[in-house]
Amino acid sequence: MWKTPTVLILIVLLLLALGIVMLASTSGIKAVELYDDPNYFFKRQALWLLIAVVVGALACKIDYHRWRPLALVCLVASAGLLALVLVPGIGAKIGGSRRWFHLGILSVQPSELAKFSLILVLAWWMAREKWHVREFWRGAVAPLVIIGLVAGLIFIEPDFGTALLCGVVGLAILYAGGTRTAYLAVFAVIGFSGFVAAVMRDPVRMNRIVAFLNPEQYAQTYSFQLLSAINAFIAGGPMGVGLGGSIQKHYYLPEAHTDFIFAIIGEELGVAATLAVVLMFAGLFVCGLRISLRAPDTFGRILAFGITLMITLQAVINIGVVIGLLPTKGLPLPFISAGGSSLIISLLEIGVLYNIALHAHGRVGTAETQAIKDRVHRF
């Protein structure tokens, strides 16, 4: 029987392969329009993929206990970058939001690093305070302040989708770590109420909500992408129209190679391919939970759980948006959508998860691991 780490890597490799193939298929039209080069986005994504694979491979080799003393450093660095991206002239403003740093031909989104940093610091805190997680201040308030800092900075970019994702994953980590459910329920209600109030005060987000509830009424504006995505699934049918044969990518789906690439998978490769994608993310979720449950310590258990939930919940949200079950949000489909920052952090997280799995299966040396744990215990 195949071991969980092997299945995990196989699933990720299949998703990456599908992603690069679909990117080559979907991005040519827009690449010609913007850069007069049909392979522009493909070449850029191939470069990101190369960097991401190197990062992921290195993360596989690094004992996950070494991340523990870096938790606060990562949090401070992420918060600093999230604040810096809001500064005019430094952060790039695209579509009304400041979410990116432009580095030549490449763009970096600091919220991706912040998502990993949030998981890391919460795992560190809950492991450090494991005997006090039932207390109000140390088990609930302190980690919720961390969640609020990260989610709040992302929220004001504005990036409501990623902020909500961080909040949900953060609360789930606290629940898994042992924080009292009553405390989490109270803060969840307060946080969600504030989130809803902010959405109601934002005309763009409110229009998306209204269009989600009445898509036909806003077919030429806010619901245009959603209805185009649905048309893509209808055209694809069970087996698809064939790789490269999509009609919707011809200016009907402006984000065909990013947020809505799942719709083009459905159109070109059919329902069978979309179900395969869903099953692969479900398999990744099961592998991640198995790794979390078998992790040799609290830090590894919570870190594995947080990584697993962050990746798979983002996939669920993306797919839910594309098939019309959720209002439109700008979240990419992990491993498949175009985007360098997301790809690098996702493979970094998979590398960390794989290393935890190696420890869980006893496939790494215990002497070195124990020495590292002894050195970082004080953190």
Please supply descriptive tags for the structure shown above:
single chain; mainly alpha; 379 residues; 3% strand; 3 strands; 68% helix; three-stranded antiparallel β-sheet
Head-to-tail CA distance between termini: 38 Å
- Can you give the mean pLDDT? 89
What's the overall geometry? globular
List low-pLDDT spans.
none
Number of domains: 1
Rg, Cα atoms, Å = 21 Å
Q: In percent terms, what proportion of residues is strand?
A: under 5%
Structural class: mainly alpha
- Please report the number of helical segments: 14
What spatial order of strands do you see in the largest sheet?
A: 1-2-3
Number of strands: 3
Provide a compact summary of the structure.
The chain has 379 residues and is mostly helical. It is built from 14 helices and 3 strands.
Describe this structure in words.
With 379 residues, the protein is mainly alpha-helical. The protein has one domain (4-376). The protein is 68% helix and 3% strand. The chain is built from 14 helices and three strands. The chain has helices spanning 4-26, 28-35, 40-61, 71-84, 110-128, 136-155, 160-177, 181-200, 203-213, 224-236, 261-294, 298-322, 340-360, 366-376; strands at residues 92-94, 97-103, 106-108. The protein has a three-stranded antiparallel β-sheet with strand order 1-2-3, with no helix packed on it. A hairpin with a 2-residue loop joins strand 2 and strand 3. Helix 3 (40-61) packs parallel to helix 13 (340-360). The radius of gyration is 21 Å and the shape is globular. The model has no long low-confidence stretch (mean pLDDT 89).
